[in-house]
Known about the structure:
The structure holds two protein chains of two kinds.
Chain A lengths: L3 E4 L2 E5 L4 E7 L5 E7 L6 E6 L5 E4 L2 E5 L5 E6 L8 E9 L5 E4 L3 E6 L1
Parallel strand pairs in A: 2-11
Antiparallel strand pairs in A: 1-3, 3-8, 4-5, 4-9, 6-7, 7-8, 9-10, 9-11
Chain B lengths: L3 E4 L2 E4 L5 E7 L5 E7 L5 E9 L2 E4 L6 E3 L9 E3 L8 E8 L9 E2 L3 E5 L1
Parallel strand pairs in B: 2-11
Antiparallel strand pairs in B: 1-3, 3-8, 4-5, 4-9, 5-6, 7-8, 9-10, 9-11
Amino acid sequence: GQQVMQIPQYQHVQEGEDFTTYCNSSTTLSNIQWYKQRPGGHPVFLIQLVKSGEVKKQKRLTFQFGEAKKNSSLHITATQTTDVGTYFCAGLQIFGNEKLTFGTGTRLTIIP
Amino acid sequence: NAGVTQTPKFQVLKTGQSMTLQCAQDMNHEYMSWYRQDPGMGLRLIHYSVGAGITDQGEVPNGYNVSRSTTEDFPLRLLSAAPSQTSVYFCASSYSGGLSYEQYFGPGTRLTVT
Lengths: 112, 114
């Protein structure tokens, strides 16, 4: 079945450093979504990427979708304490039944 | 709009007990789903519904039942609770396009089975 792997599982960075999490799918995806979950909270949608090679930016966050539509990344520039949380990717497969598979997440902690 | 609401927020059950986790949304979303979240395993789909009267199994459906009699409500029933069902449960909804649209998550129910 479809698998979505996400690395690293944990990342500790000094405030002001950059952060990147990577998402890899075993199958070609229709689109990929990114979510953020604050400690004790629920996942909140950040963005969706649809096109091969697509790059989208949200302030300090840059999202990329690979050319083969099997991988994606989220890069945060100059992290702030408000960036703390777990970042999940979710890959949509539409061959046969639609299926959205979440990655295992990357937990980001910031050292002030 | 209240968005997606879930009750209860916390629940402790003994092995073998049954209960229903409630989920409601007021956004007129057709698509609703239930996930469980366990440490290191991300979110796994339990059951989903593409509209009233239509439900289907997700990745980990065993031990759970669902029904969808209205657009607004999508309850999750645990038939006979087991310690392996200790988890955080999230309900989510999205527009009629289903998974092609962002998922709106409820606040979650933290369930402990002893």
